[in-house]
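Researcher: Please predict.
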Amino acid sequence: MRHSMTRRILWGAALSVVTSGAYALDASVEGLEGPAAENVVTFLRAVDTQNISEERLDSEVRDRTQRALRAFGYYSPQIETAYPDGTFDADAVISIDPGPQTHITQLDVGIDGDAHDDRAFQRALDQVALKEGDALRHDRYESAKSRFSTLALERGYFDAGFTQRRMEVRPWEASARIFLRMNSGPRYHFGDIRFSGSQIEEARLRRMLPFEDGDPYLAGQLAEYNQRLGETDWFRGIAVRPRIDSGGRGANSGQWWQEATGRRPPLTSGPGLAAVRQLHGQQRTDVPVDVDVIPADRHQFETGIGYATDVGPRVQFSWDMPWLNDRGHSLSNALYLSGPEQRFDGEYLMPLADPLRDSYRLGYGLRKLDNEDTQSLESSVELARRWEFDNDWVQELYFRTTYEDFTQADQDEQVLLLYPGISWTRTRTRQPNFPMWGDRQRLALEVSDTKWGSDARFLRTTFDSQWIRSLGQDNRFVGRVGGGAMATDTFDKIPPSLRFFAGGDQSVRGYSYESLSPENDDGELLGGQHMLTASAEYQRRVTGNWWGATFIDTGNAFNEWWPEELKTGAGIGVRWISPVGPVRFDIAHPFDNEEDAWRLHFAIGPEF
């Protein structure tokens, strides 16, 4: 019996939720068009016609209609209501003669105090959508008022208040007078910065500050500093907060007001407070900042399982130590396993004065590859110096030592390479999971010579550029150009890791992974001294997170300075924006390979 009663109660509650929205009034407007008419319809949607008398319903409809019209300056409308179905609970027809529209005849909008000379406030004044002679719009008045208040908080005018804030409407004259003036009072500055909970030395954290003690207060700089701390991966919890009293001012202002007047500070006490400070000959307009952090876990483990057409099933295990000491050094190791490739990589990072921009890096790795006509066992150690510039470009100068025991087609070698290199990269994205705008560029130059003990001589350069652009929210364009070139007279000593191959999910679709390169007399792949690839793709949203794609790829690896032919593939695909990243499924056709007319490509992860 109790279960039956419970079911009835739950069913009744669910039914009330389902039907509660069915009693909203559906109104149409006659005699008026445009935003004002749309505003009337919007206001009337909130009318609930359930359990209300006809007189009260009609009164509510008229009252809401008048309020909706006043927002657009119509203060003397003639309103007629009709309910076609006669039930007063579904539809209404509102006939409106709006009458004369109120216009602004007098306007006084301004900023006094320190903000009078603040460029941000001057821009805000220039952008106020209120002009003498314009039709009255309440939303524009409220928008200006809100903008001034927001700017005052963002830019440290904590004693700001409106000395005038009123709108005088004379319906009989269809005129309005608006008075909106703010006295900002003094601008506050950043005060003492206190750190709490950090396992990293304080001096290192201070060097990351985008502001200094005494700089004008900007809320955006606090958010920027919070983001910088997060990018270090040193902490799992970060709070960067200004110390502001309950009245909205800096930590010391309320205390000074009380000392001077014996009263608690009022909310809009800017002019009075400034006068008291001047009288006492002191300026205490500082805002202390509290930086509270929680250290990140010292050991972090992650396992990933995936699949790609190029390599088949794959698994990766990583072990990261985001901080090893109070200087913020970090260590990361990763083990990657797939059918053709197995590798272990590690990186020891030593941040310098600016941890996000300058660092030393010690990398090491061991890699085994067995793919097509390539068998290789490679070990390497690399020392690098990294700089990140204000224009988002990252420069890295490195020296790499590689020992590789390889078989490439009919060539067997064991080589030791010692070579320096330099690279420049830049990646810009919006919405990194599935960006609608972004680009990535990379250029690298490496050189090796037997004069310093290396087994091969070469000058090698690689470049890659990708772009993502969109048209609206449903059309996306992806382009890519990449390539490389090598000058050497000891090509037989060049290991597979430095030779060029094309083909695969990220290269020329329609061809298998790294299957395009020069061949020997037996048709075995040798790898090339040069490579060039390009791709163009158009994506169109089908529904929700599902997109369709069409694409064309071209490219090849070769030995001459320009290829005799470029291999081309084209096809169609599907994109699904999953919680773990975009899933890509493509069907590609190689134009010059009739035996392998179609090839499937599958991958998970963003374009870059």
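Model: Residues 16 and 526 are 73 Å apart (CA to CA).
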